[in-house]
Amino acid sequence: MQIIDLTHKFDNITPVYPGDPVPKLDQIKSISKDGYSAFKIQSCTHTGTHIDAPSHILENGKTLSDFSLDTFIGRGKLIDVRGKSPITEKCLEGITIESTDIIILYTGFSEKFKKPEYFIDYPVITQDFANVLILKKAKMLGMDTPGPDRHPHAIHKKLLENDVLLLENMTNLKKLLSISEFRITALPLNLSADGAPARVIAEIQ
Amino acid sequence: MQIIDLTHKFDNITPVYPGDPVPKLDQIKSISKDGYSAFKIQSCTHTGTHIDAPSHILENGKTLSDFSLDTFIGRGKLIDVRGKSPITEKCLEGITIESTDIIILYTGFSEKFKKPEYFIDYPVITQDFANVLILKKAKMLGMDTPGPDRHPHAIHKKLLENDVLLLENMTNLKKLLSISEFRITALPLNLSADGAPARVIAEIQ
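The joint structure predicted for all components is written out below.
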């Protein structure tokens, strides 16, 4: 079995959505002084590779804890949408989507992760594209961008109110391009909150 | 497929090893004021259910990033050691350990997770027990306690210098008692550090 890491590394220079608190990873105990090493982690629920729950954007929306664990595991379907914006329903032509699927958009944008334009110029999806995912009851929509849309986030709301979770800021999707069958496991920290950093992997038999 | 969560929930009252910074999960953005909700997370690398890397206790030891992802996935072998302390080599009699295995000690101690004695009275393993895991090249040793030993942590050192990672503060192990075959997936945050909080699940076919 081959395993591919689809998660950005978390450190002091992980970029964040404008206005979010900066990430911190600072050593607070050392072997020479304390006998062991430990670091303090400071993160926002939406820093780096993470999952959005409905309560991120919907009043009284569900938190991550309201979803069963099988939501975070599914058959991955990679859609190559490089150079496309908006990403329309047409990109789904010929692709069968089932309720066990995690749909992943490969835009190539993760190469810009540490550049200012990453949070500005990213490609977005259309309402029609979102509607197909809702109709087919996809578990999650993943992407190598900060999100599926921009302010006022109508598509965020639409997908999340229909329990299609969002898996944002993925990386290494290029490695999945020639792979026909893979499983996604996207395990978030165990928080009752509006989202959480997640470790995301693809497994190829 | 059945999935069991073996991870303690992370929140403001997650207990920590004496001296470690207290965990925080505080709302910093709200839908009514900011248009979206977000929380700030503060954690130590060794808070709640987490993995220890060698650099936790060994100068110039490996960090979590030095291990391939398959280290965190393996066949689970639950050993029922309730009422035993120390946990000796005898507890491994009749159990075949392979290099794909993640060995898990079920002590029942997770029931005390929020009581002060949790970090004091927990059962420990013997050097002989550790030697078998090293000899058989087990991937990880998991347990529903704060760790495999107490100060000065000779067994921590022994296991970690032989690349047997430690998966500490697990919960819900009781649910695995009657299960003969299961897979453990213990995915830590993607940090180059001495450990990290992890989401840990068991999958039963």
